[in-house]
Write a structure and sequence with these properties.
There is one protein chain. By secondary structure, the protein is α/β, with parallel strands linked by helices. It has one domain: 3-Layer(aba) Sandwich (Rossmann fold). It is built from 7 helices and 7 strands; from the N terminus they run βαβαβαβαβαβααβ. The protein has a 7-stranded parallel sheet, sandwiched between helices. β5, α5 and β6 form a beta-alpha-beta unit. It is globular, with a radius of gyration of 17 Å. The model has no long low-confidence stretch (mean pLDDT 93).
Length: 253
């Protein structure tokens, strides 16, 4: 398959924020997009793209439901005959009044919920999709980590930081196992990006956080979408198992 118009790209967490921005970017680049979210609003959020004549299928799915994930993967394969691109973007980060929950007060239930959605669900999706990519000898996996998975972020809870660090390690193992099959797997580690998740907290907290970003502003979903668009392209075939930091200069190493 030589044309990206024939590629099928699934994006999780696509009802808003970063995921919707990625779905928009890929749809406008000519991909068949499968926009996935547990929120029914994913249908309404992606309708403007279909109104533009773009190829976007909205799927309401709880990615923490392993059987439902298997059915979704089988449905995509049956409908399009391919599964080329997986963008694991969905994630949650519960906070209390914009502040992280101390690990000393965190319950195992709270821990498991975040790890389950932010890491385990991504693992299940990769495991279920990779055989289809292997079958066609081509695939692109992009896993969304975070600056919190790379360094200390004062507002990040321990469950969120652990999941995002785990995403990086998981991606490297996946990349090493499928590299010979024409499949790449990479992570993006965004800093603060405009989204419902990052607007939690007071105006004073937001101003303080922006003041710590060297470029002097919060990033946009489209800027992350631009990086995703490259990582899922034909041109990125020699790039795998790596982490791309997109954070306005807040993490330099």
């Amino acid at each position: 398959m030589n044309s990206k118009q024939q590629r099928v790209a699934a994006v999780t967490g696509a009802a808003g924020g970063l995921g919707l921005g990625i779905a928009q970017r890929l749809a406008r680049a000519g991909y068949q997009v499968v926009a996935i979210d547990r929120a029914p609003q994913v249908e309404q959020a992606t309708q403007p793209l279909r109104d533009e004549g773009l190829k976007v299928q909205a799927v309401v799915l709880d990615i923490a439901d392993e059987e439902a994930v298997r059915r979704m993967v089988a449905d995509v394969d049956a409908r399009y005959g391919r599964f080329d691109i997986l963008v694991n973007n969905a994630g949650i980060h519960p906070k209390i009044d914009g502040e992280r929950n101390s690990f000393l007060k965190m319950t195992t239930l709270q821990w498991n919920e975040v790890i389950g959605i932010n890491l385990t669900a991504a693992f299940v999706l990769c495991r279920e999709v990779a055989p289809l990519m292997r079958r066609q000898k081509w695939g692109r996996i992009v896993n969304m980590s975070s600056r919190a998975g790379r360094t200390l972020v004062e507002t990040a809870g321990i469950h969120y930081a652990a999941a995002k660090a785990g995403m990086i390690g998981m991606t490297r193992i996946i990349a090493s196992e499928v590299a010979g099959d024409g499949i790449t797997a990479n992570c993006i580690a965004p800093g603060r990006i405009e989204s419902p998740m990052t607007t939690q907290g007071s105006d004073a907290q937001r101003a303080m956080l922006v003041g710590r970003i060297p470029v002097g502003r919060i990033g946009t979903p489209d800027e992350i979408g631009h990086v995703v668009e490259f990582l899922v392209s034909e041109d990125s075939g020699y790039l795998t198992g790596t982490v791309i930091d997109v954070n306005g200069g807040t993490f330099m190493c």
